[in-house]
Write a structure and sequence with these properties.
about 80 residues; 4 strands; alpha+beta; single chain; 2 helices
Length: about 80
């Protein structure tokens, strides 16, 4: 299963987008630079127009992040079992 994540953040003096592609336990990334703060529709249009032109890094083995649940929730779940 392939998963793709895009994070947009400000790195003075530009706005930067980082694509993270996870596939079969491997991670590869691609960084793009926006001149001005991009609007949502501009990011969407960029992805539609240029996704297949993106140059991702070589894939590295990566562990999947498992979100931790709240300790009280884990306690309730353990008591139900």
């Amino acid at each position: 299963m392939e998963e793709l994540k895009l994070t947009v953040y400000f790195e003075d003096p530009f706005w930067v987008g980082v694509f993270e592609r996870t596939q079969n336990g491997t991670l590869s990334v691609c960084k793009i630079t926006f001149a001005a703060k991009p609007k949502d529709y501009a990011v969407h249009a960029y992805v539609l127009r240029h996704f297949y032109e993106l140059l991702f890094s070589p894939a590295l083995h990566a562990r999947q992040h498992v979100p931790c649940s709240h300790p009280n929730r884990r306690l309730r779940q353990a008591q139900k079992q």
